[in-house]
Write a structure and sequence with these properties.
The chain has about 725 residues and is of the alpha/beta class.
Length: about 725
């Protein structure tokens, strides 16, 4: 038996050990070759009367990250090819059978009559965890590195290897639906409490405990294959079931606004599957999975959130001629929320951090902010006090710039004021090593102009973090006109160290993310000025699947900051560069009303000390015209909120601010939450079709103004029959 991805070992106790160890990979993944090897090994175990049972484990630090999603893209290409050669019906039949091979293999393990146990030594996700669920016994390492979960929903899919059916049979239906909808990674203790695994054991003992279960007469039948098995929440059509399904459907619509076909498929699979025997239920799941694989939403999300993000995180934009960095010590100037968050992220990566502010008290306050974040994690059981103290020991607060002398990289994160930043840069330069790189965390000020304060502009660039730093996964790396490849390489290496995703953009007002965010916020302001009810604006923002409405987002980033940016733009580019309706609204809110946003508990929303935020009633008084909500086209409002952002992204490409559509799409989803089901700002245009997008822009421009003018660059691509993704030689979704 020739296995490339597994080792099959037979012990003296007649129990086989199947060790999954994909060669040349840091983590085990499922692909056609692995599935074939697994099927061969399983049949060997089943067919050999000398083998009593089998333990499946991993030869790596983790068990499995799940499926290689490029395998699913390949199935789509094969479907298209067979449709042309054999006809649509024959191609679909072959496609369906191809997509359910893993499900059938797992069911074979489950019903073969010999006990299979899974020894989970680390991360176990997606199709890897579905393999574990198909085994009759599961033991997971009691380790902070161990996690189990089914995260497929996050890339527009759902578990297609039996996950929806087994999870729904292991726990109460509401809990199962929540797990499948959220796609979270679950810690070992919680996994046991949820009935997803049977036992916890030290890492070194997971295999021996699994082996002992088989040796002790482990039962080779799944609970749901027992004659008298009943679903944990009872029958679907029962008084208890009717307390579950109507609310579940309502929650689905509230949370997705019907934008995510995979979430709807989960409901269908669980609802129908719980009424059927397991084999029929698995066929329902497979049919839904084959359908979801062909949806544009799944194709777009897989491409962006799996393919493109993977390429970016592996160094898509890293200069090939630059050696790997050896970063050991980071300096952060400015110990506010942003600076403290950056310092904490670096400490988590094992870097020694110098946290500088104007005096010791201010610097200490920054470290205290990091301590507060870590303490919350301890209280939630996500960390321990020794782990917290170990991280805090890496952070040294001080007002003395001399402490920057040993830093490999220094990040300036002081107040967003050109003069304040210039002073910090000059002080840092006097203390830094001659080979150290300096970065600015500015969100608005041009990097090239800030670099004028630094004697080595080739070693100066922007590292734009998003707030809150500890939660936001994106970093914009901004290249000034004189930023060099060495600085870029070090910036990318640092972002990789702290486990965030970088996109590289060229210097311009608002860079990439902020100009798109600014367009979204401005459109909300202008809708308010038109007389659209504030609640409708906010709800439509959520219906378009933005994280929050434009007014709430403005409150989060601060209204006074929006006012300052507007005035700076006006000073630099002239009065025509700002919209008078937006300027008047912000002047009324900020200058006259002192409403600054969440930070002073009053903005477009009021923020009472107790209770949830609520829209400020005074907004209605700012609207000279009030439109009847029943006469407003909600679909058009959604289009406006998405199109203005996509237009800014297209202009950024045309102006050379962002060079690669993969970075634009990944950056738009991770940085400002652009409707993930679209695949990102440029996928939104590509999937609509550039000709159709240009026509939509023309319609909106005629009705609402020049901000919807379609760039000539987009029209040129449309005339050539091209899309944004054609420029990187990749097939668009």
């Amino acid at each position: 038996m020739n296995l490339k991805n597994f080792r099959l070992e037979l012990g003296d106790d007649a129990i086989a050990l199947l060790v999954w160890d994909c060669p040349g990979r840091s983590m085990n993944v499922l692909n056609p070759e692995v599935i074939s090897d697994l099927a061969t090994a399983v049949e060997r175990v089943i067919g050999d009367p000398a083998i009593k049972g089998c333990v499946i484990t991993s030869g790596k630090d983790s068990f499995s990250g799940g499926a290689d999603l490029t395998m699913l893209e390949t199935l789509g290409h094969q479907l298209a090819a067979r449709s042309r050669s054999e006809g649509r019906e024959a191609a679909m039949a072959a496609f369906f059978e191809g997509t359910r091979q893993l499900s059938l293999l797992y069911r074979r393990i489950e019903t073969c009559g010999k006990p299979f146990a899974c020894a989970i030594n680390g991360l176990c996700l997606g199709g890897g965890f579905e393999l574990a669920l198909a085994c009759h016994y599961r033991v997971v390492a009691d380790s902070d590195k161990a996690r189990v979960g089914l995260p497929e929903i996050k890339v527009g899919l759902f578990p297609g290897g039996g996950g929806t059916q087994r999870v729904a049979r292991l726990m109460p239906t509401p809990d199962a639906l929540q797990m499948l909808f959220r796609g979270d990674q679950i810690r070992p203790g919680m996994a046991k409490a949820m009935n997803l695994v049977h036992e916890l054991a030290p890492v070194a003992d997971v295999v021996s405990q699994a082996r002992a279960w088989i040796a002790g007469g482990g039962k080779a039948i799944a609970p749901w294959d027992e004659k008298n098995w009943r679903p944990p929440s009872g029958k679907v059509f029962s008084p208890g079931g009717m307390m579950i399904w109507p609310p579940a459907n309502a929650i689905y619509r509230r949370e997705t606004f019907d934008n995510y076909p995979a979430a709807k498929a989960v409901l269908t699979c669980v609802y129908e599957g719980l009424q059927l025997p397991m084999d029929s239920a698995l066929k329902v799941e497979s049919r839904q999975f084959a359908y979801i694989l062909r949806t544009p939403e799944a194709a777009a999300m897989i491409r962006t959130l799996f393919g493109s993000m993977g390429e970016i995180n592996k160094g898509l934009r890293r200069p090939k001629d630059q050696p790997a960095s050896t970063l050991r010590r980071l300096g952060v100037i400015g110990a506010g929320f942003m600076g403290a968050g950056i310092g904490l992220s670096a400490a988590r990566a094992g870097l020694s951090v110098v946290l500088i502010d104007r005096d010791q008290a201010a610097a200490d306050k920054g470290k205290a902010h990091a301590e507060a974040i870590l303490t919350k994690e301890v209280m939630k059981g996500r960390s321990t006090l020794p782990e917290r103290d170990k991280l805090l020991a890496l952070i040294t607060p001080t007002p003395d710039y001399v402490a920057l002398a040993d830093c490999d990289l220094v990040i300036e994160a002081v107040f967003e004021d050109r003069a304040v930043k210039a002073e910090a840069i000059k002080k840092a330069q006097a203390a830094m090593r001659a080979d150290a790189v300096l970065a600015s965390n500015t969100s608005t000020l041009p990097i090239s102009s800030l670099a004028e304060n630094f004697a080595r502009p080739a070693d100066f660039l922007g590292l734009h973090f998003f707030s809150p730093v500890e939660k936001m996964p994106l970093v914009e790396i901004i290249m000034g006109t004189k930023s060099g490849p060495r600085a870029l390489a070090i910036g990318l290496d640092f972002v990789k160290m702290i486990k965030k995703t970088p996109i590289v953009v060229n210097d311009a007002r608002g860079f990439f993310a902020n100009r798109c965010v600014g367009a979204y916020i401005r459109e909300g302001h202008l809708m308010l000025g038109e007389g659209v009810p504030a609640a409708m604006i906010e709800n439509v923002g959520r219906m378009a699947w933005m994280p929050v409405g434009p007014l709430a987002l403005n409150d989060e980033v601060a209204l006074d900051l929006a006012w300052k940016v507007l005035q700076a733009t006006k000073a630099d580019l002239g009065a025509d560069a700002v919209d008078p309706v937006q300027e008047k609204l912000l002047e009324t809110m900020v200058v006259k009303g002192g409403r600054l946003g969440r930070k002073n508990a009053k903005g477009f929303y009021d923020y009472p000390e107790r209770g949830p935020k609520r829209l400020w009633p005074g907004l209605a008084d700012l609207q000279p015209l009030k439109l009847d909500p029943d006469g407003i086209d909600v679909g058009e409002l959604k289009q406006r909120l998405l199109v203005v952002q996509a237009l800014e992204a297209a202009r950024a490409v045309a102006e050379g601010i962002i060079a690669d559509p993969r970075e634009a799409d990944v950056g738009s989803i991770l940085g400002f939450g652009f409707a993930p089901f679209t695949g990102g700002v440029l996928s939104y245009i590509d999937n609509m079709g550039l000709t159709a997008f240009a026509a939509l822009c023309d319609k909106l421009a005629t009705k609402y103004g020049a901000r919807f003018t379609c760039p000539d660059f987009v029209r040129d691509l449309a005339r050539q029959g091209k899309r944004f993704y054609d420029q990187v030689g990749r097939q668009a979704a």
